[in-house]
Design a protein that fits this description.
The complex is a heterodimer of chains A (115) and B (186).
Chain A lengths: L3 E7 L2 E10 L4 H13 L4 E12 L1 H15 L4 E5 L3 H9 L7 E3 L2 H10 L1
Parallel strand pairs in A: 2-3, 3-4, 4-5
Antiparallel strand pairs in A: 1-2
Helix pairs in contact in A: 1-2
Chain B lengths: L1 E7 L3 H18 L3 H25 L5 E7 L27 E7 L4 H4 L29 H11 L2 E7 L2 E9 L15
Antiparallel strand pairs in B: 1-2, 2-3, 3-5, 4-5
Helix pairs in contact in B: 1-2, 2-4
The chains are: A alpha/beta (115), B alpha+beta (186).
GO molecular function (chain A): anti-sigma factor antagonist activity
Pfam families (chain A): STAS
InterPro entries (chain A): Anti-sigma_ant (IPR003658), STAS_dom (IPR002645), STAS_dom_sf (IPR036513)
Amino acid sequence: MDLKLDHYTEDDTEIVVVEGEIDVYTAPRLRELLIDLVNKGNVHLVVNMEKVEFLDSTGLGVLVGGLKRVRAHDGTLDLVCTQERILKIFRITGLTKVFGIYESVQEAIDKRKSK
Amino acid sequence: MAIVQLTISALPAHVRTARLMATAVARRAGIAESALDEVRLAVGEACSRAVEAHRVHCPDQPIQLELIDGAGNRPLTGTQPDPPVPATPPNGHQAQRFEVTVSDRAPAEEAGGPPVNSHAPGSEDTHPEDSLPGDVNGLSPDVGLAVIVGLADDVSIEPHDGGTVVRMSWPLGNTGTAVDPPLSTS
Protein backbone atom coordinates (compact mmCIF):
# COMPACT_ATOMS: atom_id res chain seq x y z
CA MET A 1 0.00 0.00 0.00
CA ASP A 2 1.18 3.47 -0.81
CA LEU A 3 1.43 6.27 1.71
CA LYS A 4 -1.56 8.44 2.64
CA LEU A 5 -1.03 11.62 4.61
CA ASP A 6 -3.53 13.90 6.28
CA HIS A 7 -3.37 16.50 9.01
CA TYR A 8 -5.67 18.56 11.19
CA THR A 9 -5.46 20.88 14.14
CA GLU A 10 -6.61 19.86 17.59
CA ASP A 11 -6.03 21.79 20.76
CA ASP A 12 -3.09 23.87 19.45
CA THR A 13 -1.47 20.70 18.15
CA GLU A 14 -1.12 19.62 14.54
CA ILE A 15 -2.07 15.99 14.17
CA VAL A 16 -0.43 14.21 11.24
CA VAL A 17 -2.24 11.04 10.23
CA VAL A 18 -0.07 8.54 8.38
CA GLU A 19 -1.45 5.50 6.64
CA GLY A 20 0.38 2.86 4.62
CA GLU A 21 4.08 2.22 4.16
CA ILE A 22 6.92 4.56 5.07
CA ASP A 23 10.05 3.50 3.26
CA VAL A 24 12.81 4.90 1.08
CA TYR A 25 10.28 5.56 -1.69
CA THR A 26 7.51 7.25 0.27
CA ALA A 27 9.42 8.87 3.15
CA PRO A 28 10.26 12.05 1.19
CA ARG A 29 6.54 12.91 1.11
CA LEU A 30 6.27 12.70 4.88
CA ARG A 31 9.44 14.73 5.22
CA GLU A 32 8.02 17.46 2.97
CA LEU A 33 4.80 17.59 4.97
CA LEU A 34 6.62 17.89 8.29
CA ILE A 35 8.87 20.64 6.93
CA ASP A 36 5.88 22.47 5.50
CA LEU A 37 3.97 22.30 8.78
CA VAL A 38 6.93 23.60 10.78
CA ASN A 39 7.56 26.37 8.26
CA LYS A 40 3.94 27.45 8.74
CA GLY A 41 4.46 27.77 12.47
CA ASN A 42 3.18 24.41 13.69
CA VAL A 43 5.79 23.37 16.21
CA HIS A 44 3.74 20.97 18.31
CA LEU A 45 3.20 17.88 16.20
CA VAL A 46 1.68 14.51 16.92
CA VAL A 47 2.22 11.85 14.28
CA ASN A 48 -0.53 9.25 14.44
CA MET A 49 0.99 6.00 13.21
CA GLU A 50 -1.85 3.67 14.06
CA LYS A 51 -2.49 2.93 10.39
CA VAL A 52 1.14 2.59 9.37
CA GLU A 53 1.73 -0.84 7.91
CA PHE A 54 5.48 -0.63 7.41
CA LEU A 55 8.25 1.59 8.73
CA ASP A 56 11.96 1.29 8.04
CA SER A 57 15.03 3.27 9.08
CA THR A 58 14.43 5.80 6.31
CA GLY A 59 11.10 6.61 7.89
CA LEU A 60 12.74 6.80 11.28
CA GLY A 61 15.20 9.27 9.82
CA VAL A 62 12.37 11.49 8.63
CA LEU A 63 10.76 11.46 12.07
CA VAL A 64 14.08 12.24 13.72
CA GLY A 65 14.61 15.06 11.23
CA GLY A 66 11.16 16.41 12.09
CA LEU A 67 11.94 16.21 15.78
CA LYS A 68 15.09 18.22 15.25
CA ARG A 69 13.17 20.89 13.39
CA VAL A 70 10.45 21.36 16.00
CA ARG A 71 12.98 21.35 18.83
CA ALA A 72 14.79 24.19 17.11
CA HIS A 73 11.58 26.16 17.74
CA ASP A 74 11.05 24.81 21.25
CA GLY A 75 8.38 22.53 19.87
CA THR A 76 7.52 18.87 20.27
CA LEU A 77 6.98 15.88 18.04
CA ASP A 78 5.27 12.93 19.67
CA LEU A 79 4.03 9.68 18.21
CA VAL A 80 0.89 7.64 18.60
CA CYS A 81 1.56 3.97 18.04
CA THR A 82 0.41 0.75 19.64
CA GLN A 83 1.45 -1.69 16.92
CA GLU A 84 4.13 -4.05 18.12
CA ARG A 85 5.52 -4.53 14.61
CA ILE A 86 6.17 -0.79 14.34
CA LEU A 87 7.32 -0.28 17.93
CA LYS A 88 9.91 -2.97 17.45
CA ILE A 89 12.08 -0.87 15.15
CA PHE A 90 11.94 2.03 17.62
CA ARG A 91 13.22 -0.31 20.31
CA ILE A 92 15.98 -1.81 18.16
CA THR A 93 17.32 1.63 17.35
CA GLY A 94 16.91 3.03 20.85
CA LEU A 95 14.50 5.70 19.64
CA THR A 96 11.92 4.89 22.29
CA LYS A 97 14.05 7.11 24.50
CA VAL A 98 13.98 9.95 22.00
CA PHE A 99 10.29 10.13 21.09
CA GLY A 100 7.28 10.34 23.29
CA ILE A 101 5.19 7.37 22.17
CA TYR A 102 1.56 7.29 23.30
CA GLU A 103 -1.50 5.14 22.83
CA SER A 104 -3.83 7.89 21.67
CA VAL A 105 -3.77 11.40 20.25
CA GLN A 106 -5.52 12.74 23.32
CA GLU A 107 -2.95 11.17 25.62
CA ALA A 108 -0.14 12.73 23.60
CA ILE A 109 -1.75 16.15 23.79
CA ASP A 110 -2.48 15.85 27.51
CA LYS A 111 1.08 14.77 28.28
CA ARG A 112 2.56 17.71 26.42
CA LYS A 113 0.31 20.18 28.16
CA SER A 114 1.09 18.75 31.55
CA LYS A 115 4.84 19.32 31.13
CA MET B 1 17.18 -26.24 -2.24
CA ALA B 2 15.10 -23.68 -4.10
CA ILE B 3 16.49 -20.34 -5.20
CA VAL B 4 14.68 -17.21 -6.35
CA GLN B 5 16.85 -14.50 -7.86
CA LEU B 6 15.77 -10.92 -8.33
CA THR B 7 17.63 -8.09 -10.00
CA ILE B 8 16.38 -4.55 -9.47
CA SER B 9 17.41 -1.16 -10.72
CA ALA B 10 18.63 1.21 -8.03
CA LEU B 11 15.26 2.89 -7.64
CA PRO B 12 13.47 3.41 -4.31
CA ALA B 13 10.19 2.15 -5.77
CA HIS B 14 11.70 -1.28 -6.35
CA VAL B 15 12.63 -1.73 -2.71
CA ARG B 16 8.99 -2.48 -2.00
CA THR B 17 8.96 -5.03 -4.82
CA ALA B 18 11.92 -6.76 -3.22
CA ARG B 19 10.24 -6.73 0.20
CA LEU B 20 7.06 -8.25 -1.17
CA MET B 21 8.89 -10.95 -3.06
CA ALA B 22 11.09 -11.84 -0.10
CA THR B 23 8.08 -12.10 2.15
CA ALA B 24 6.22 -14.28 -0.33
CA VAL B 25 9.17 -16.64 -0.79
CA ALA B 26 9.82 -16.76 2.94
CA ARG B 27 6.20 -17.66 3.62
CA ARG B 28 6.30 -20.40 1.04
CA ALA B 29 9.57 -21.71 2.50
CA GLY B 30 7.87 -22.15 5.84
CA ILE B 31 9.26 -19.28 7.88
CA ALA B 32 7.35 -18.88 11.12
CA GLU B 33 4.61 -16.26 10.88
CA SER B 34 6.21 -14.37 13.76
CA ALA B 35 9.40 -13.96 11.73
CA LEU B 36 7.85 -12.80 8.45
CA ASP B 37 7.79 -9.18 9.56
CA GLU B 38 11.45 -9.47 10.46
CA VAL B 39 12.29 -10.82 7.01
CA ARG B 40 10.31 -8.05 5.36
CA LEU B 41 11.96 -5.28 7.36
CA ALA B 42 15.49 -6.68 7.15
CA VAL B 43 15.28 -7.19 3.38
CA GLY B 44 13.85 -3.69 3.02
CA GLU B 45 16.71 -2.24 5.04
CA ALA B 46 19.34 -4.08 3.02
CA CYS B 47 17.78 -3.01 -0.27
CA SER B 48 17.26 0.60 0.85
CA ARG B 49 20.88 0.82 1.84
CA ALA B 50 22.01 -0.69 -1.46
CA VAL B 51 19.77 1.62 -3.50
CA GLU B 52 21.10 4.70 -1.70
CA ALA B 53 24.68 3.56 -2.22
CA HIS B 54 24.08 2.89 -5.91
CA ARG B 55 22.40 6.24 -6.43
CA VAL B 56 25.58 7.90 -5.21
CA HIS B 57 28.17 5.71 -6.87
CA CYS B 58 26.71 3.68 -9.72
CA PRO B 59 23.05 4.45 -10.46
CA ASP B 60 23.04 2.43 -13.67
CA GLN B 61 24.15 -0.78 -12.00
CA PRO B 62 21.57 -3.27 -10.78
CA ILE B 63 21.23 -4.71 -7.29
CA GLN B 64 20.92 -8.46 -6.91
CA LEU B 65 18.93 -10.50 -4.42
CA GLU B 66 19.00 -14.20 -3.83
CA LEU B 67 16.28 -15.83 -1.80
CA ILE B 68 17.31 -19.34 -0.82
CA ASP B 69 14.95 -21.89 0.66
CA GLY B 70 17.35 -24.24 2.42
CA ALA B 71 14.72 -26.88 3.07
CA GLY B 72 14.61 -29.94 0.91
CA ASN B 73 18.17 -29.49 -0.23
CA ARG B 74 18.76 -33.20 -0.33
CA PRO B 75 17.50 -34.47 -3.69
CA LEU B 76 15.89 -37.85 -4.01
CA THR B 77 18.58 -40.47 -4.65
CA GLY B 78 16.59 -43.62 -5.16
CA THR B 79 18.18 -46.57 -3.41
CA GLN B 80 21.47 -44.85 -2.85
CA PRO B 81 22.23 -44.03 0.76
CA ASP B 82 22.32 -40.37 1.63
CA PRO B 83 25.82 -38.99 1.92
CA PRO B 84 26.83 -37.42 5.21
CA VAL B 85 25.51 -33.89 5.49
CA PRO B 86 28.10 -31.43 6.77
CA ALA B 87 27.07 -28.79 9.28
CA THR B 88 27.69 -26.15 6.64
CA PRO B 89 27.39 -27.43 3.08
CA PRO B 90 30.29 -26.79 0.70
CA ASN B 91 28.35 -24.10 -1.13
CA GLY B 92 28.17 -22.06 2.05
CA HIS B 93 24.39 -22.21 2.28
CA GLN B 94 23.06 -23.31 5.61
CA ALA B 95 20.64 -26.22 5.59
CA GLN B 96 17.10 -25.80 6.88
CA ARG B 97 17.30 -22.05 6.83
CA PHE B 98 15.82 -19.31 4.71
CA GLU B 99 18.67 -17.17 3.48
CA VAL B 100 18.65 -13.82 1.73
CA THR B 101 21.65 -12.18 0.12
CA VAL B 102 21.61 -8.61 -1.17
CA SER B 103 24.61 -7.72 -3.30
CA ASP B 104 25.43 -4.20 -4.35
CA ARG B 105 28.27 -2.86 -6.48
CA ALA B 106 29.01 0.41 -4.68
CA PRO B 107 32.48 0.87 -3.16
CA ALA B 108 32.18 -0.44 0.36
CA GLU B 109 34.40 2.10 2.08
CA GLU B 110 32.03 4.95 1.41
CA ALA B 111 28.75 3.16 0.93
CA GLY B 112 28.55 0.84 3.85
CA GLY B 113 31.12 1.99 6.34
CA PRO B 114 33.10 -0.47 8.39
CA PRO B 115 32.16 -4.11 8.62
CA VAL B 116 29.42 -4.83 11.08
CA ASN B 117 29.82 -7.77 13.42
CA SER B 118 26.72 -9.86 13.65
CA HIS B 119 26.92 -9.64 17.41
CA ALA B 120 27.16 -5.86 17.47
CA PRO B 121 24.53 -4.25 19.69
CA GLY B 122 22.63 -2.21 17.13
CA SER B 123 20.92 0.08 19.57
CA GLU B 124 24.20 1.21 21.01
CA ASP B 125 25.56 2.22 17.62
CA THR B 126 22.99 4.92 17.05
CA HIS B 127 23.12 8.44 18.29
CA PRO B 128 20.11 9.98 16.65
CA GLU B 129 20.26 13.24 18.49
CA ASP B 130 23.87 13.73 17.46
CA SER B 131 23.23 13.22 13.78
CA LEU B 132 20.08 14.89 12.68
CA PRO B 133 20.52 16.22 9.18
CA GLY B 134 17.40 17.53 7.53
CA ASP B 135 17.88 15.14 4.66
CA VAL B 136 15.50 12.29 3.91
CA ASN B 137 18.01 9.96 5.47
CA GLY B 138 18.11 11.59 8.86
CA LEU B 139 19.98 8.59 10.21
CA SER B 140 23.27 7.10 9.12
CA PRO B 141 23.15 4.19 6.66
CA ASP B 142 24.77 2.20 9.44
CA VAL B 143 21.48 2.39 11.31
CA GLY B 144 19.93 0.28 8.56
CA LEU B 145 22.66 -2.30 9.05
CA ALA B 146 22.16 -2.17 12.79
CA VAL B 147 18.46 -2.84 12.28
CA ILE B 148 19.29 -5.85 10.12
CA VAL B 149 21.60 -7.17 12.81
CA GLY B 150 18.81 -6.70 15.31
CA LEU B 151 16.26 -8.50 13.16
CA ALA B 152 17.92 -11.38 11.38
CA ASP B 153 18.73 -14.57 13.17
CA ASP B 154 22.17 -14.74 11.54
CA VAL B 155 23.87 -11.91 9.64
CA SER B 156 27.08 -11.36 7.77
CA ILE B 157 28.02 -8.11 6.07
CA GLU B 158 30.95 -8.40 3.71
CA PRO B 159 32.22 -5.14 2.24
CA HIS B 160 34.83 -5.28 -0.49
CA ASP B 161 36.07 -3.15 -3.37
CA GLY B 162 33.40 -4.34 -5.75
CA GLY B 163 30.49 -3.80 -3.41
CA THR B 164 28.90 -5.19 -0.28
CA VAL B 165 27.14 -8.49 0.25
CA VAL B 166 24.60 -8.57 3.07
CA ARG B 167 23.70 -12.15 3.93
CA MET B 168 21.01 -12.91 6.47
CA SER B 169 19.11 -16.02 7.40
CA TRP B 170 16.35 -17.36 9.58
CA PRO B 171 15.53 -20.88 10.70
CA LEU B 172 12.78 -22.69 8.87
CA GLY B 173 9.88 -24.22 10.69
CA ASN B 174 8.09 -22.98 13.74
CA THR B 175 11.09 -22.01 15.83
CA GLY B 176 10.88 -18.36 14.84
CA THR B 177 12.91 -15.94 16.91
CA ALA B 178 13.51 -17.14 20.40
CA VAL B 179 13.92 -13.83 22.15
CA ASP B 180 10.98 -11.92 20.77
CA PRO B 181 7.28 -12.43 21.37
CA PRO B 182 5.05 -12.95 18.34
CA LEU B 183 4.27 -9.77 16.46
CA SER B 184 0.75 -8.60 16.06
CA THR B 185 -0.79 -9.33 12.71
CA SER B 186 -2.99 -6.28 12.47
